[in-house]
Amino acid sequence: MIPARRDILRAAGAATVLGLGAACARIPTSSPIDSRPLSARSQPGVPYVQALPPPADATAEQVVSGFVQAGVGSEDDFAVAREYLTDDLSEVWEPTAGITVYSGSRELEVEAISDTEMVLVLEVLALVDSEGVRSLLAGPTSREIEVGVELVEDQWRLSDVPDGIFLSEAAFETLYAPARLYFIDARSQHLVPDHRWYPLQRGAEAVLEGLSGGPVDFLDGAVHTEVPGNSGVADTEVSTGADGTAQLTVPSAVASLAPGRRALALTQLESSLRSLRTLSGVRLVRDGADFAPSEDAGIERALPGHRPIAAGPTGVISLADPGTDAPATQLVPDLAELALRSPVIAQDGVLAAALTKEASVVLLASTDGSVPLREAATGGLFVPPRVDDAGYVWTSTRSSAGVLMALSADGPESDAKVDAPWLDGREVQELDVAADATRMIVLSSDAGGSRLDLCSVIRDGNGVPQSVTEPVQVRTFLSDVTQASWYDEIAVIVLGSDPGTGEQRAQIVDFATGREPLPSLRPDTDRIAGTVVGETIWAGTADGSLLRNDGDGWTTVDLEARDPWFY
């Protein structure tokens, strides 16, 4: 029995492939494409292609294939793609409901299973929802989508297809681009990125709609926007200035905000627009004059640290100059004589934390003595602590009861226990808080294997943690992931095993653009840390060796240290 058509597409994780019938056509994945001028509404400088309409003598298989390829033509509300549909279906079909991104290296297959039913077979790589959120699959996955066909005045037309469009990977990356919608954290100190994919033809308009529409679910409640929900885009246009720079007219609803809110909204707008490759040099204008945010808006993007540290034979040591013969500099006086694991220091260089050698105690201290040394958590085995710039050190017992601990620099009376019910009963291996002190990744495992989750910390206006949001899963190519930490604003570095060979591997997982493998590691690597700011990656091994990668492979550093990190 063939599943209902919408159930097939909705079941994004399904791996079952339906049995093939007798009639099967292999359709080339490339087709003639014409170009033509854009409408006046279109954004200058972006690619555009127009797919061909169905030939009068097209077979049913060719109509199915042509409809798939017509997804490249978005002009006039996908008018060409609608020509492949019956009139009734054309009226209700929603092309913007989502995108199925498939591999262009394999021919499309269209199988006739009856006079009015066909199955389209695709090798799917990713799914993009109506909000522009892309979900990469673990690997290329064969999918079957049932469609209906019928004769309309002696020409085949589609009578039943899922909402959304289909794009080959090459077409998707030509016509769409990653964007970062920047929202504002609870303290109005940091811009927090929300990664989306938008059509380049309407990139600026899509960014405005995204900012006024609010963040994705896992950020909801943790961030806010100053771009008004009713801002619309009626009086917004993108043009090219005399110097060739793209110019965006600021919407009236933003221009009329009170000065403080307007400065935040303009910062959101400018940063978000510049994340699109076609608008990287955009200028905000109003009435012909520059309308940029003031430099004292007081909010900025938050990037990871770049100063390397590690646990020495005792204490927390600097790795800033590991090639000298001088003893490594001790950075935290109160910890200098203690054998430690997993040291961290806040980006401002003050609050510090580490585990004792047995990982049974979480220690808090500071580089300048302003935070007295204390045993902040005892009575269990703890994951490596991570510190945010709101004055909290985050950790968890390895066997989770669904609670995370936020240990305060102000003392035990300000410590917080934060419910995370989705972790209850799981083994927590790692957690890390992004530089914006809002987004968090948590690596955990159970009998079914490891899982990397992305969530957000909901805080009050003073930065006190209140709760964490329901997470979304981050997919990696690796199996048996043992470590994950932030590498860039929207990228993490993970350590695990190659699913094919079992070899120890690391990769950078960018939430927007995909995965980048790193050079092969020693089999006994147990710690890896990297930062895009310094373009450096450090690794530690079980026997205490320390390695560094500056882009040309791994170099052993002659220094007794373990558990490298950055602040």
Give a brief outline of the structure.
The chain is mostly beta strands. 12% of the residues lie in helices and 41% in strands.
Structure description:
The structure is a single chain. This protein is mainly β and 567 residues long. The protein folds into 3 domains: 159 residues, Roll (Nuclear Transport Factor 2, Chain: A); 124 residues, no CATH class; 259 residues, 6 Propeller (Neuraminidase), CATH 2.120.10.30. It is built from 8 helices and 41 strands. The strands form 10 sheets. Strands 1, 4, 5, 6, 7, 8 and 9 form a 7-stranded mixed beta sheet that branches. Strands 28, 29, 30, 31 and 32 form a 5-stranded antiparallel beta sheet that branches. The protein has a 4-stranded mixed beta sheet with strand order 12-10-11-17. The longest helix is centred in the middle third of the chain and has 16 residues. It is globular and about 85 Å long. The N terminus is likely disordered.
Which SSEs are present, and which pair or pack?
Layout (H helix, E strand, L loop, with lengths): L4 H6 L12 E5 L5 E2 L15 E2 L8 H10 L5 H8 L4 H6 L5 E5 L5 E5 L4 E13 L4 E19 L2 E6 L4 E4 H7 E10 L4 E10 L3 H11 L9 E2 L13 E3 L5 E4 L2 H4 L3 H16 L8 E4 L2 E2 L9 E2 L6 E4 L4 E3 L21 E6 L5 E6 L4 E6 L7 E5 L7 E2 L4 E4 L7 E6 L7 E4 L7 E7 L5 E8 L2 E11 L5 E4 L3 E3 L4 E10 L2 E7 L6 E7 L3 E4 L7 E7 L4 E6 L4 E4 L4 E4 L4 E5 L1
Helix pairs in contact: 6-8
